[in-house]
Amino acid sequence: MDASPNGIEFIVYKGSPDRRVVQGITHRDHLNGDEVLIRITHSSLCGSDEHYLGVDMCLGHEGAGVVEALGADVKTLKVGENVAFGYQRSCCGSCVRCLGSLETFCPSRGFYGFDEMDIGSMASHIVFRESFVYKIPPSISNEAASALMCGGATVFNVLDMFSVKPTERVGIVGVGGLGHLAIKFAAKWGCEVIVFSATESKEEEVISWGATEFHVTKDRDTFEHVTPIDHLMVTTSQQLRWPLYLSIMASFGTIYPLTFAEGDLKVPYLPFMTSGLRIQASIVAPRVICNRMLSFAAFHGIGAAIQKYKLDVIGIEQAMDDLREGKIRYKAVLSAGDQDEAREPL
To answer: What pTM was estimated for this model as a whole?
Structure first.
């Protein structure tokens, strides 16, 4: 990063038309009043990052780092603090959604991939608005925090926003970046956690994270002896065989699609209607829930299972290749090489 009378310049890693990662430079003339300059120490990789690999934009939206400079109006942060940031960058602050702590649905929201395309977590630095920067609890390393800022926030949002009770049964379809965190959070939330996966070899690992049941879905036409599910988190990007899952949903149960899949969402009409089921759209968490997620993870010692890569062109491309080939178990974290002084990962 170069700070000079001409402004602030820093390195960014971008997509390109041939889907190769390229190194570039972005610039800010100065920090506006509520802006924070963060030196990035870690960036986690999300499956949605690959959607933007062919776009001339800075990649990454799950980051952690150290505050290096503050705009004149910043009040809650200090230089040298460890902080994290996620998918959302801004909102209007005054609409009915923002006033109700639902700024993720603000009509003027700023999201990764839609707003300020020249900044992201795969960079040497980032400039972010103070109100969308999160202090990292002392017991969580920057490395661990970066891996929670999208996947962790997305699955925790279901538990918190939709008032999942600890007496309810939570089903989780898929054991990947989202799914493995959903298991850990739901187990510590106090729920019975029922996992559905096509990979039989993951059972022992899943049970060690707190799951109470594990069901293999490959070549399965029915589930036998499965007590009805109250909440079903769909964390796989594959379209589900809906009749298989509707048959085990409790009446008035809720299904949460948490990833994007090709094609339309088509659900059999009769079993859906006769059981009074709901499909609830859910995206990343608003700020109040992001903060609660970090506090909950710190208190319960929840962290992602990670694989480490270097935060440079070669490291990003290797992580992308491994993600494509299904080799990551379960989150890729890119490191700038900084050390978290006296802070051990979860």
So the answer is: 0.92
